[in-house]
Design goal:
Layout: H1 13-17, H2 22-42, H3 55-66, H4 68-83, H5 98-102, H6 107-125, H7 132-158, H8 160-167, H9 172-201
């Protein structure tokens, strides 16, 4: 009889840096994460062909650093603030606010945020955030799953061809740039943590 051993789950960056007081850690990190998501939605960086926000980068990196459950919960906490009418989402309050805004044309991308954070956390638990090659693949997959529900929802109102043209093509360059930035961020963070741990042991 053949048995398959499940891959050993690895600790997240968050648990390594803050191993105790789980409840307090989760509360504080969710608050910090929601602030980072808000800031990343509001700050626009000049880019071609459209300005770039850092929100998808923050979504994926938070997922990797926090893990599946905490990463997903943090994004849901952030979206709950948007649903309650707080101007935390990109384009708010100028283009709308609350649930009415969230179920608009870009609503599918918000669903993608939750999926991406959870997926990134799952891959990080399998050590896909510690080496450049695997982090590249993990970041690419997480960004991809943001586009899937985003374009699907957008296509219900403007059709697939138009949805791809306005919902994917203008953001390809920015997505590549943020993916490459993430490839540097996570392995570098783990190396710094490793150096700090070795320094404490000496």
């Amino acid at each position: 009889m053949r048995t398959t051993l499940a891959p050993q789950m690895q600790p997240t960056l968050a648990t390594v840096l803050w191993p105790s007081d789980r409840a307090l850690r989760h509360a504080v990190l969710m608050a910090i994460g929601s602030v980072l998501l808000t800031l990343s939605a509001k700050v626009q960086i000049p880019f071609w062909p459209v300005p770039m926000t850092m929100q998808t980068y923050v979504v994926v990196v938070l997922g990797m650093a926090y893990g599946t459950r905490l990463g997903g919960a943090t994004v849901l906490f952030y979206l709950a603030q948007g649903a309650l009418g707080l101007p935390v989402l990109a384009g708010t309050p100028e283009r709308g606010i609350g649930l009415a805004y969230m179920v608009g044309p870009t609503g599918g991308y918000l669903v993608g945020f939750v999926i991406a954070a959870a997926l990134a956390g799952e891959l990080a638990a399998r050590s896909w955030d510690r080496g450049f090659a695997r982090t590249l693949l993990a970041m690419a997959l997480a960004h991809l799953v943001i586009f899937v529900p985003g374009v699907t929802w957008l296509a219900t109102s403007i059709g697939w061809e138009r949805a791809f043209a306005v919902g994917v093509v203008p953001f390809i360059g920015a997505t590549v740039a943020k993916t490459l930035l993430g490839v540097v961020t996570m392995p570098l963070a783990w190396r710094l943590v490793g150096r700090h741990s070795r320094h404490q042991d000496t």
